[in-house]
Each structure stands twice: as structure tokens, then as C-alpha cells.
Amino acid sequence: MSLSRQPAYWLFVMLLLGSVMLIAGEQFAYVSTVPGAWFLSYVLLAATAIPAGVIIYRFDQFEPEPASLVAIAVVWGAVVALTFSAITNSAALGFLQQVLPATTVDSWGAALVAPVNEELYKGAGLVIIYMMARAEFDGLMDGLVYGAMIGLGFQVVENVQYFVHAAAESSGGQLGPVVSMFFVRVVLAGLYSHMLFSGLMGFGFAYAVTQRKASRGRRWGIAGLFIVLAWAAHFIWNSPWLESLMTMGGGSFVLVLGIKGLPFLGLLVVLGVFARRRERHAFARLMTEEVGGDVVTQAELEVLKIGRRRRAALRKTKRRDGAPARAVLRQLQREQMNLALFHTKVRAFDHPALEAQRDKVRGLKARLARLDATSGQAG
Amino acid sequence: MIGWMLFVFALAAFAAPAGSEALGPVEIGSGVVVAPPGGWALAADSEAVGPQGAAFEKAGATVIFAAGGWSGGTEELLADQLTQLEAEFDSFDALPAVPFSAAGGVPGHVSLFTGAADSGRLEGEVAALAEGGTGVVMFAIAPFGQLRRVQGDLDEMLDTVVIPR
Fold it and tell me: What is the domain range of residue A65?
């Protein structure tokens, strides 16, 4: 897959360059005025966003998405979607200020404006990634992963803005406000934010573009439903509902966050489990022809299907045959799972690419057997 | 994407009050001239301020400029205004006055305040300027949390107000 051959890729590059010019100026202003807060913001956010990104990436265990597309998703959220949203939000608030009372705009402005604009621009990232690499969108999980990655990028840079502004407005030191905001926006509320909203939208989008057996009306109807759900989750989150309860103390504050965010987070988790189950069934189906030969045994397939079992096998091998054997088994598991990917790309059972992959698996099995034998002799 | 952005811009422009470009300089009396930035419109009840003043509105905020003879200092003029305001609001609270310079280095004092009225909790800014026997008072008020939206405009009006020497 060569991204540079896709017009959508160059559209992305163009929008990115334009957005970078705007967002770079903003970041430079942050560094100039509150350098300590800016640096601490990125350190704290990296400490949480990198593990979150790894977890999302690894959630798609049977067909990890290409790193280049995942990076584009994150950058789209962090730079392009955020820039377009900021400009449009500002204009939309200006509109609301003319048509609604000022107090209403103050309370409801963020709930009315942000979901419409931000979900639209984050969703556009899904479309552009799909236009760049249609072949990579072949399951519901793909939409969840790309959507959540776009949301993650958006969330990180938006949080930097919040942290830095809190520091700039504080009459005390720079670092205290950053840590306080980090606690509220990331520790308490991080799971209910843009990753969740655009993860929901990604699921709907993936349904529309991958479930080709369903009628067009059903596919786009479900996509529309998830777009509304993403918007609703964002709207409820930004709305002033239960605000009076939030001021009553720490416990109430956390309770309100849970009431507003947990139902949608629960839904996303259920969708994730559902998508993963579908991937597992698809994987087992694709591997049917391989099972029973010298490449994958039935017992190995049962292990490969479930992440917990794969990790248990790795631990067992490490205990029995040492770390090098564990590394080989890990690679073997990955290459055996890749066999399923090859089956999605080629139809002929004896296709040279499939044969080469089988040889790779056989080679790893032989290496593992040697390590096993060596450790057996040593033992 | 860009289409949606342009649509929102068009909506905002369409909804903006007619002539939302700057009103232009407005003489409020005693030769004092105020130049509200774009987006401010003459308040419907501006005449109620009297012949020596004018009121402008934008995005739920109202600012009143009034001029008249004053031979004292600006700190006293401000204190006099705050005393009057205190009588009109419940839970009135004002920050200590701070000196500032307006257009042409004209000295002044400014204070921020909050208070409650029948319409709810409000916040505002009062500034007093004096030059050549003329005193000018700027009184801005907005629903609580809204004043910051127009703070830049208020600063600009104080920076450009013209008081005859």
C-alpha cells in the first residue's frame, strides 16, 4: 500500500500543513508565556496517552492496523480536527451569542457547539483514512481503533490548551494548576472524552463500509445512529446538567462524571467485545484450512483465538525454556495469526505468498523445538 | 469540512446585528468621544442614560459611558460610583481600585465588581477618568462569567476615549 499514490493522502497533507501553521503559533505562544506548564502538560499527557494508545492499538489483536495509518489518525485528531473545530466553534459561539441570551450561551454553548463541529471534523478523519486505504477497513474493530486514535490525538492537544490556560490564569505557580487540571480532565474524566465519542462514531462508520451483506439503508442507518450516539455522548458530557450536584463535593463530582459518561463508555466496551468476538470467529474461519497440518494444530488455534491463552502460553514457555524461547513463541504466534491475513488477501490455497508464510511458521516451529530440546537436555 | 466552516461563518455574519462593523466615534457630551469596536450597537434605551452619556450592547453585555464636570481625582470619582452601585445590588463586592492610563496618558482608576440583581448574578467593571475639569465614567455590566467575552473591547474603548483637554 503506497499512501503517496492516494489523492486523499495529499489532501490530508495539505490540510495538515495549513493547520500546523495555526497550531504551531499557538504552541509557540504557550512555550513563550508559560514554558513550565507547557512542558509538564506534555509530560503528564504522554505518560497516560502513550499507554492508552498502545492498549487501543493492541485491542485489534488479529489484524493490527498499519502504524502509518494509526499515526495519521492521531495527527488528524491532534492537529487538523482540532484546528478546524477551534475556528468553527468560535464562529458558532458568535452566532449563538446573537440569537440566545448570554447566560444560556454561557451554560449551553459548549454543549450545543462542540459536539456538532468536533464530531464532524473528527469523523472526517475516518473518511479520509478510509479513502487512503480502503483495504485496511475490513472489520468493525478497524473503525473503533481509528476512531479512538483520532479522539486520543484530539484529547491530548485539547488538554494541553486547558492545562496551559489554567496555568496562565493562575496568580500562583504554573505547575499546580496543570496538575489539578490533569487530575480532573485525565484521571477522573479521561475515559469519557474524545476517545469514547469518536470510537462510537468509528464503529458506525466501519459498519457502513464493511458490512456489505446488509442493505445500504441498514448500513447507513446504523452509521447514522452511531453518529447521533457520539454526538449525544459529547452533548451530555458538555451540558450543564447536574452541575449543581458537582459543586457539592468530591464524591458528588465523581458521581456526576460517572452518570454522564459511564453509560456510553459501557456501550463502547460492549461494542468492543462484540467486534473482537466477530474478529475471533472470522479468524477461526480463515484458519480452517490450515488447521490439522504442520503449520497450525487445533490446540494451537484454540490458544491463538484468545489473548489470555496466548499470554499464558508465553509465560509457560518462559518458565520452562527461558526468555529466548518465549520470544520465538511470540513471533510464531504472530506469524500464525498473519496466516489468516494472507487468506483474506489471496484466494488460492497454494498461493506462493501463503506458502512463504507457512515456511516462515515452520522455521519458527523448528527453532522453538530446538530451544525446547536444549532446555530439556539442560534440565 | 471547509464548507461547514464557511456555513457557520455565514450564519454568524447573518445573525450579527446590522451594522456590526464599528459604530464609529460617538460623542457622549462635554466633547468626550467614545469609539466602540465592531459588534457593539447603541442600546435601545440609550437615551435613558441622559444627554451626557450613551449606552452600548454586545453579546449580553452593556456598557455605559457618561461625562460631566469633575474637579476631583479619579479615585474619588470611582469611589462615588461604587457607593451608588452598592446601594443597587445585593451581595455587592468590589475589588480594590487600581490606577491605569487611558488614551493620551489620561489618568484613571478602575475596579471590577460582582453583585446580585433580580435578573441573577452579575459582574461588571467601573472605570473613572478625569481631565481638564471633565470626568468620564465607564460602567460595564454582564451576566456572571460573561464579562471576559468583552473585556478586550472594554479595554479598547478606554484606550481610545477622547477627552478634551
Answer: 3-286
Pairing of strands B90-94, B98-101: unpaired
Q: What total number of domains does chain B contain? A: 1
Q: Do A102 and B17 touch (CB under 8 A)?
A: no
Q: Provide the residue range defining the domain that includes B136.
A: 21-160
Q: Report if residue B15 sits inside a domain.
A: no
CA distances to A49, A82, A97, A305 from A106, in Å: 30, 21, 9, 51
Each residue's pLDDT tens digit, A157-169: 999 999 988 887 6
Inside any domain, residue B7: no
- Answer whether A262's CB lies under 8 Å from A44's CB: no
> What number of other Cβ atoms are within 10 A of residue B89's Cβ?
18
CB contact under 8 Å between B15 and A99, yes or no, is yes
Question: Is residue B25 assigned to a domain?
Answer: yes
pTM of the predicted model as reported, rounded to 2 decimal places: 0.76
**How far is it, in rounded angstroms, from Cα B52 to Cα B68?**
7
**Tens of pLDDT, residues B8-20:** 888 888 887 655 5
ipTM of predicted complex = 0.79
Do A302 and A241 belong together in one domain? Answer: no
Q: Which of B1, B60, B142 sits opposite A84 (nearest CB)?
A: B1
